[in-house]
Amino acid sequence: MTFASALGVTDGSRSYASEAASHFARTHAAYIVELEIAEVRAAARLRELRRYQKHLQRTFEGVRIHARPQVPSSSDEDHIRALELNTSVLTQKGEEYDERARLLERERPDGRSNELRGINAFEELEALHTEISQNREALRAKMELLATCSELPPDVTLARVKLAERRQQLHALVVQKDALLRGIAQP
């Protein structure tokens, strides 16, 4: 039985295997680039969402500070006027914040906002992060498989030569082992 027949390698399958290995290497590089791009986009969106969350927290704090009622006087009319004043201040602040948000939306670069528009929640970012991690694990497994296949010679003749060299090395090691065992056995 030859090395090629043991592996099921024929002339056609050798070329197919080398084409498959080169296709896998090209696909692997493209896949890594896609993973890195997705990771950068997800990180950018996460930063954007965190900034927006901080903005909302500051806005909420501002609203809460302005919403505190003034110390009511003894008269109910004064209390009603204070509540109306607080309501008008809150309405003005809300309109101001809406206008500021519209201005910020217009100032954002188009490319960045269009790229990240599809990602709307932290849960989606977590799902993307999990998917990227799973894809990296699958990629590592495929790279290990590729590394083992890349050690095989591309030609059956070359494989026979390599096999003959390995057999000679094995024979030399067996002879060396026998000599060492004889040296140990003889006092």
Q: Keywords, please?
A:
single chain; 187 residues; mainly alpha; 6 helices
Characterize the structure shown.
α2 packs antiparallel against α3 (76-107) and α2 packs antiparallel against α5 (122-150). The longest helix is centred in the N-terminal third of the chain and has 57 residues, at 11-67. By secondary structure, the chain is mostly helical. It has six helices and no strands. It is elongated and about 120 Å long. Mean pLDDT is 75; it is low at 111-115.
Q: Mean of the pLDDT scores?
A: 75
Oligomer: single chain
Task: Please identify the structural class as seen in this structure.
Answer: mainly alpha
Any low-confidence stretches, pLDDT <50, length ≥5? 111-115
List the helices and strands and how they pair.
Blueprint: H1 3-7, H2 11-67, H3 76-107, H4 110-116, H5 122-150, H6 156-185
Helix pairs in contact: 2-3, 2-5
In short:
This protein has 187 residues and is mainly α. It has helices spanning 3-7, 11-67, 76-107, 110-116, 122-150, 156-185.
